[in-house]
Amino acid sequence: MAYVAVSGGEEAIEASIRLLDYYRSGTDKDLELDALVHKFGLLIEKVMSESGLYAKEYAALALKQCEGSAEEAVFLLRAYRSTLKRSHYTNAVDTGKMRIIRRISAAFKDIPGGQLLGASYDYTHRLIHFERENENASELHEHFHKILAEQTPEKVQSCGRVSDMLKDEGLINRFPEDNTEPYDVTEKLLEFPAPRSARLQTMTRADTGFLSGLAYSVLRGFGQVHPTVGELRSGYIELEIPYPDSDDTIYLGEILITEVEAFAQSEDKDQLKLASGYGAVFGRNENKAIAMAVIDRELERGGDYAAQDEEFVLTHGDCLEMNGFISHLKLPHYVTFQSKLDAVRKTRRKQENEEC
Amino acid sequence: MEKKRLFKILSRAESTDVIQLGKKIQNKYPVMVIKKPEKALAMIKMREPVQNSLFYLGEVIISEAAVSIDGTVGRAAAMGDDFEKTLNMAVIDAACNKGVFEDENLLLEWEAKQNELTEKENAMLQKTKVDFHSMDSEVTA
């Protein structure tokens, strides 16, 4: 059989793209971006985290455009981001100054500044609230607006880190300030062994499911067993860039992040110390931040398990790359498949001839 | 007023208020746009506490602009894509740099309201603080 390359299908493709709008047209109700931003906050934060771009309204628009597909939204945001010029690098953010909205420790009950539960689904009954089907959104908005107005203001105070307590006791190593410019995986190809900055950047923009699955494998025995969440904190950090020709800065705004320090055994054979893993992500993606901290520790330690293999972890978790590669399997492989088919037919014919 | 504080107040202020304040300056002084507002990216540099090193967390979309009043330059950059607000932030900055900004008290009023709102939200958050007082104290040694 001869190999035949084919072209065509343009009209069918155009009709297919039009059909996507048909699928969004099943109702005459629109999804307002403002409502998406405020009511689908966690999804938007997940998409921003996986795209490496903090832009709530843009993430909401991307989700609206693609029927809520997280991976398509990540694709759209990454593509859009590539059209913009990067003009600035922020001054290094010290998360010790975070305006905290939630902070817990699984290691100590008494931590400096106390444990602040903030808003969390951890303590809810997982029951569907059917009455929310007909929720009055403006009533809800007004209700909390009134509650907020009635509060007695309380000064915001930053909190020391839980790990500082252990560093003060010499139970965790304290490192000198390292001001090496970070490696930027959006501009340079990863090389192995990867610098710590490349690892952290790759993991913070990784697919949430990939990191969670890997961290789960660690907890189930394919790695170190059960690290302890020393501290999980969510809150706002302020972004600043230098004001030209001065020591002053321009405040750009604040972003919501979650960061985690997980404590685990160190490599120290006498077991006299603990070691930490670190995770930090956009938004309130707590499980992703915990998973990142678990894997950070595994990578530092190294070993034979998947979560300890730097190349495995860092090259298979990018949402865009993994979905792009899997998705390419849907594209026509007519020529290569014909070739495979020919090989099988040839082998069968050879076998049949030998049997005769 | 130091720049960080100025931009924090302006960034958190309502767009319409900032535009109104900027227009007031534009009506009084000749403002030349040096750099029209445009979108750009800022890469976020973070310090991680485990090895005290730096890494990039991700990028943020900002808009930035520059103007001048009689040769005195004013600049602005802020998260988001509110071009008109950013342009007027640059106008206010130019007026500050030239020493002709007259509404610092208004900015301080805005700041007080912004801080009050943040502190009221903090009051709601503080109600979720766990009280462990009935349990034993931590064994640290």
Would you summarize the structure shown here?
The complex is a heterodimer of chains A (356) and B (141). With 356 residues, chain A is α+β, with helices and mostly antiparallel strands. In chain A, 42% of the residues lie in helices and 15% in strands.
Commentary on this structure:
The complex is a heterodimer of chains A (356) and B (141). Chain A has 356 residues and is of the alpha+beta class. Chain A has 2 domains: 10-81, no CATH class; 95-121 and 160-323, no CATH class. Helix content of chain A is 42%, strand content 15%. In chain A, strands 4-5-6-7 form a 4-stranded antiparallel β-sheet. Chain B has one domain (3-104): Double Stranded RNA Binding Domain, CATH 3.30.160. Chain B has helices at 3-12, 15-28, 83-98, 104-126; strands at 31-47, 54-69, 72-79. In chain B, a hairpin with a 2-residue loop joins strand 2 and strand 3. Chains A and B meet through strand 1, strand 2, strand 3, strand 4 and helix 6 of A and helix 1, strand 1, strand 2, strand 3 and helix 4 of B.
Helix- and strand-based class of chain A? alpha+beta
Strand content of chain A: 15-25%
Global structural class of chain B: alpha+beta
Residue windows where pLDDT falls under 50 for at least 5 positions of chain B: none
- Name the helicity range of chain A: 40-55%
Series of H and E elements of chain B: HHEEEHH
